[in-house]
Amino acid sequence: MVYSDPEKRARKPPLADGNESMSERILVLVALSVILAMVFGTGMRIRHPTAAPSLRTDLMLKSDPTRPLASVASIDAKGESKPLNERITRPTVITYWATWCIPCLRELPTFLGFKPMAEAAGVDLITISEDKEGVEHARKFLEEKGLTALPFLTDADGSVAKATRVKGLPTAIIVNGKGEEVARMEGEADWGTKETLDVVIELLGMGSAAPVAGR
Prior knowledge:
Layout: H1 6-47, E1 61-68, E2 73-76, E3 81-83, E4 92-97, H2 102-107, H3 110-120, E5 124-129, H4 135-144, E6 152-154, H5 159-163, E7 171-175, E8 180-186, H6 194-204
Parallel strand pairs: 4-5, 5-6
Antiparallel strand pairs: 1-8, 2-3, 2-6, 4-7, 7-8
């Protein structure tokens, strides 16, 4: 005896419709997955690091006339405050960065190569962290990344960046021995090359940089 329930037979069409709806939803989800894969795939390619250019004079924003560096309080690695302009004793490159800034994280290690070349040529380097967490946060990051050779200041409230007209990160400002801005680079560059140092020396009017051993 075959059991037959008229109510169940009556309910079959809706079940079939439900299966069709489920199939349609699966197809939609598959299509969305493909679209998302394409979108995120493209995004990943866009974000993929590319080699930053060496500094060139045509990439720089020159200050004409030169502008005195702001007398704004700055905090050093010891937590001591001092006006930024009073930290300048000879030509200096000041670079602004943050741990959340991806281009900064690519650029910052190139200053390890720039620093000894620049100091030998009579140019100092100062890096300024724009992280709100302050000194210990910046110190820990530099230690973790093997960048402790880079001297740093912190600008937790953004007052230094504001006073020096920094609009984005990374930004590097070239300051002459008088404490005046002569040019700036807005955006990422490779600072670890002799060519970059030559540009800095040229902008500062210091003549030619000495040859670098091994280059």
